Amino acid sequence: MVLHLRWHGRRRSNIYPFMICLTSVLIAMPAIGQTGRVLKAKGNKAIVQFEKGTEIYQGDRVSLKESDKYDLKKGRLGLFQNRNYALTYSWISAQSSGASSTMSHAGRIFFGWNMRQFEVGPTFSVSTVDVSSVKSQSIAVGARAKYNFTENTKDTEWVPAFYGELSFASATTSTSTASSSSSNSSYGAGFQIDWFLIGNNVALGGYLGLQQDKTSATTTNTTALGTSITLYF
What we know:
Helices cover 8% and strands 58% of the residues.
């Protein structure tokens, strides 16, 4: 048996579901294109700032620009996206003038914390000093602080600064006939500029300053000229 049924009411148009979907897409499109910057983040919650005039509604899904520390799509950014820490290798030449002219060369490693306006941390250096026929080699540990005239933040290309440093060294002095050991201290200050020529996290630097070296017997004032390369991470 075949039963034929006929619907006598008004036929519902198939366009309604399509219109509902289209309306949902159009409403969602502005939210998809909206971008904002993370001001503060903790766990999976964040405070986000959007451009003035942006309409945001609860439940919207938005794409965000990468902030200094967080990206909601990727979580914490990679190691080499920020400038929180600095690892520097520098080469310094210092020369004094007067009755006993000296020339010193030093290689130094600095690890520091970048607080945007200030950078501070410990140093380790190995140096050689030539005074006439006398040669001295020393190993020193110390500290260095730098005040940045321009905040050292992501995407800043030039960072001029004033620096100050001190170190304490154990030195071995040798001549053609004898050798001896001593300890000395060194103080220095001057101006420095870093240029982020190689990407956002590698800076080439140059600096000029005054340095004073003290031993139990002498005090030597020198002019120091140096170059450096710094990796920020």
